[in-house]
Structure formats: C-alpha cells, structure tokens
Structure of Transporter:
Amino acid sequence: MPKTSKVVQREQSHEHVTESVADLLAHEEPLDYKSSSLNVGAAAGKKIPQIEVPENDGRPAWNSKLQYILAQVGFSVGLGNVWRFPYLCQKNGGGAYLVPYFILLLIIGIPLFFLELAVGQKIRRGSIGVWNYVCPHLGGIGMSSLMVCGFVGLYYNVIIGWSIFYFFQSFQYPLPWSDCPIRKNGTIAIVEPECDKSSATTYFWYRQTLNTTSTIAESGGLNIKMTLSLLVAWIIVCLAVIKGIASSGKVMYFSSLFPYVVLFCFLVRGLMLKGSVDGIAHMFTPKLEKMLEPQIWREAATQVFFALGLGFGGVIAFSSYNKMDNNCHFDAVLVSFINFFTSILATLVVFAVLGFKANIMNEKCVAENGEKILGYLNANVLSHDLIPPHVNFSHLTPSDYADVYSIIKTVKEDGFAKLGLEPCVLEDELNKAVQGTGLAFIAFTEAMTHFPASPFWSVMFFFMLINLGLGSMIGTMTGITTPVLDAYKVQKELLTVGCCIVAFLCGLLFVQRSGNYFVTMFDDYSAGLPLTVVVILENVSVAWIYGTKRFMQDLEDMLGFRPSIIYFYLWKYVSPLCLIVLISATVIEMAISPPGYNAWVQDLAQERFQSYPPWALAMCFALIIVAMLPLPIVFIARHFNLMSDGSNKLSVSYRKTMMKDISNLEEQDEARFILGAKPGDTPLSGVARKPYVTPAGNKSVDPNSLSPNVCYGTSYQNTAINSPPKSKNNKTLEFRKRM
C-alpha cells in the first residue's frame, strides 16, 4: 500500500478516523493488494504469484501407502520376533506372558510409536532435525539415536552374515550339521570328541562356523568364512538403500512379505509333525502366578520397546517421507498389531517345531536308557521281577519307561544314582529355554534335520532370517543417512557407500574367532539403556516442554480429527512414569547382575559363564557413555550459545509452509486496513485463519503451531527481542528476508 495512503497516514498518526468506508475508498486509487509492497521482492504495481506449497517439494516420497506400511513393518518386525519373543513366553509363564505384553503394548508401545510417526511426518526431517525443532537444547536426542543406530547396525549385519553362510551351506544333502564328523587315526575311525560330547548342530555352530576361542581375550585372528559372509551382507544392504526410499521401498515388497510366507509354510508343516501339539500346548498353558512377578513386566516392557524400533530414528525417518495429511494414527495402530500378531505366529511355529524336537529327543532318551536297563538285567544287577509283564523293551514307549524308572528308583533307592538312569520326561525337554543364536542356529536347525526334504526347509528358514534382518537393517541405515542428508548437501549414493565401507571395516571386530562374544557385548550394552533414555526424553520434550495440548492441536490440524483424549494422559503421565520405572529396573538389573558372557569351552564341549576382563568391562561402559554423550554436550553447548540450534536448516516444505502462512497474514492485515479495522482486531470471518510463525514477542503466534525452537525462544526469534519497535508489516518483511 503506498505511503501516501490515508489509511497508512491515519494509522501511523493514530488520529481518529471520521470518514466512512465509502469515503476512504473514494479517495484511494484502485490497488491490487496482492501486488503491494508488502509482498517481499515485488516492485510496487507488479503482480507476483502467491506462494503455494507444492505437492512435491523436492523431498523423496513413498510411491504408495502400501510401500510405506511394508517399510515400517519390515523395520519393526525383525529377528527378535522369531527368537526373542518365543523365549520370553516360555520363560515367563507361557500364555500368561501375553497379558502383560499386550497391556504394555497399549499404554507404552502404540502411544510412543504414534508420537514418533507424528513428529517425523509433521516436521519432515530425520531424528536430528526433528528434535532440534521441538526443543534445541534436547537436540542431542537425535544424535544419540544416530549413535545407537551405528552400534546396532555393526553387529546386526554380522547376524545376517551368519544367516547367509548357513543359507549357502543348506544346498547339500545331507545337511552338513546333521551328523558329527569322523576323525581317522590310521585305520581307526572315531567321532570328533568335541562333537560327541555336545551335538552335531552345536559343533557345527561353534567349531565349523565360528571356530570360536575359549575366551574373549583370545582373538584368534579373522575367520575368513565369516569375513566374506559379512562382506556379502554389507553389499546387499548397500544396494538396498543406495537410492534411499526409491530403492529400499521396492526391496520391502519382498523382504517384508516373504517371511510371512515362510512362517505360514512352517506352521502348516509343523502342525503335521508328531509332538507339535505338545509344544503348542506347553507354550499356551498359562502359569498365572508368574504374572505377579515384577521381572515379567520389566521384560515385557523391554520387548515392547525394542519390537517397535522406538528411539532408533528409523521410524521418524520413514514417516518424514509421508504427505502431511497422512493418517499416522492408523499407521501406528496397524503396524503395532501386525508386529504383535507376527510374534504370536512366530511363537506358534517355534513351539510346534520344538515340540517335535522334544518328542524325538525324549524317544532317544527312552531308547538309550532302555538299553542300559537291559544290560543291568542281563548282568543280574537288576532283577527281572522288577519289570512289569506288559513292558516290551523292543518297543519301549515313554509311558512304559516311566513305570520301569519309577519302580527301579523305589526299589534301588540307595544305589539308584550309580545306575545313571535319566527320567526322560517330555516336560523337561520342553522347558529347556533357548533364545537368540542358540534357537536359530542350534535348536531350530537340529529340528530341521529330522524334516523330510530337510535342505529345502533349511534354505527357506535362513532365507527368511536374511529378509527379516534386511528389513531391520534398511530402517537402521535410513535412521543414519536421513538426518545427515537433511543437514548437509551430500550425494546420497556417496554417503551410503561410505557408511557401508566404514561399517564393514569396523565390523571386522565381530568376525574374528572371538567375535561372537563382542556381538553379545554390543547387544547387551550398546542399545538397552541409551535407547530407553532417548525415548523418555522424546516423550518429555513433546509432552512437558513443547506441551501435550499444543501437540494434540497440531495433530488435529495435520490429521483432520482430534485423537482420543486417552493419548493426552498416556503421553503426559503414564508413558513417562512407565519409562522411568523401566530405566530404574534396567539400572538395578545391570548393577546386581555380574557383567559377563557365555564362552564355549572346547575341552568340555559346553558353555561356561565368564566375567569380562577389566578392559572388556571398560568397553561395555564406554558403549553406554558414548551413546548418551551427545545429550549433555548439546544441552550445555546450546545453553551457552556455543552451538547453532539448527533452525537455519529448516526443511523446504516446512519453510514454504511458514512463507504461505505469512502471505495469508499480510492479506488479512491489508483487508483490515482497507475496512478501517485495527490490526489487532478479530479477523474477518471471510478470511481463512491459519496458525503461523512470527518473531518472538508477537502475540499473534498461534499457541498450537509446531514451531521450532519454541521451548527456548532461540534462533530467528532472538534477533527480534532487542530490536526497536517496528510496525507489524516491517517485522514480517524482515523475517521473510532472513528466510
């Protein structure tokens, strides 16, 4: 509007306006207010197009909603669903464990998963950028997430490498781990003693695959087979993520869906095996008294926490490529329940197969001990009168053996221990809890050797593990690369290749002969406590610093509906309280449990718990400290203005959204001027009102807008604090120039 305008003159001089609206319009020359000097960069009298937020602002986007859901499912559903969840069910009361798990999924898992999806989708940045915007002083949250992603990615891909090795070893019949190797000593052939003392699958894992040492202090040099497998694993991951979501999104169509095909095939095949029903019945028979133990609730909370991938940054990174109006609440509920039902499906498969294995091992035990009893009968150590007439040793059943065992134990009470007889109870076999690599590479692998067409099932199983691991690794790598690409102008392909090369070189630590022990160390210490701290700070920064009411309003603006009020109380009170209890329990558990690892002792052919040496113990605590170190460093640096708050790196879409809102503000103000209203008056009903960002001190800021730096008033807001008073229009002009 020209400076000679009566409206401007009256406004600046604060004189009482006596003319009517008609008089004002009669004295003013016609003017298109969109071409006025209030529009930055426009000469007076020249029109410029209104700023609009384009559908494609330059940030990559998912090709379809299905692709995005599969990516989130692939990231959250990983190896832990197959070998951790079934173990926790078996250990913590079978079906009774599902009750605390489901409750904690509802009050911790889904709300926090929804929170991460929402902030990533709203701000459209990776983990570092998101928390810089929500609260710059807590910007270290994103950096800690990146550190944890790096640590986890290093050892997680080693597990994929192990699966690749077993995958290629499965293309032979019989499977190489089905029988113990024979050692020839001249004309005498004997079974390998280490294998004879343990089992064929155990020997193949520890000796022929890992060739492990007896302690973590013995390096033993690089294991060439595992080094090559790790190299192949990193090449696969690099090719999957080298183009960002353009390449990883396509990979997810297969890597996320194929494991379900394999699990359903294994379930059908497992139910046809003898003893599978015994395993499933054992699994789902609830031991309700277990539900009263605090340890079960702690382990259920930890499993919920890690099953959804909270705190890693992958969830935020994936959601940042969504459209602003995507229904992330639906996504959070859908992915969480898919994850839960996948764990149930995997548990059914595992216990069906382990029930079959338990029956085989029990029958083997009965046969071996039956031969012992026959030997004692023939040697007159035991009387034939002790054997019931219906017992036939040529077809000795578990129930018949149980009768004979009970009679002998009663009669030979004093010398029974010398006989060396075992009870051979099926329940004891089913109670042998196995988790992690012991389940995948020993117990489950041994069970598959008894399958008809065992190589086919072995190929399918390890190919499933590769795909499960690949889906999680894609999310982990995205959690690393997305924040870096958001902050720096780096070529995506070059960054991805560089990360993979560095990760492979660092991963050589895990493919030396003692590498298995370092995998255990990183799994125990690099992620647990740091990630829990990261997530509780995420929760606090949104619910208490940014404000739950404000966040709920942001969600309503973004989704088009207001989420249930339940989320308000969950984010504000329940989730932080549960996370504080979980952190306390984790610290107590670490304090009372001696830090150590299970080492394979070659002479004994069995595992023995060993404490970490001092240097390894220092390494354990260094992993925790390094992962959490960015939190205090960033806080102190920004508190004393030693570090930029990152507001000058707003994403393109976020910046353009603010520009559009400011343009709308200018139109509203000019309309008020023309109609004789004061700028502070209520806007016209015909003018759309949207939340917008203005310099600090301007009361027209919508308290419900998700503005970066809102918790400490830093960055561009500070520049306006000490500046002399200016008109609103000049403030807006100055702000847009700084943009």
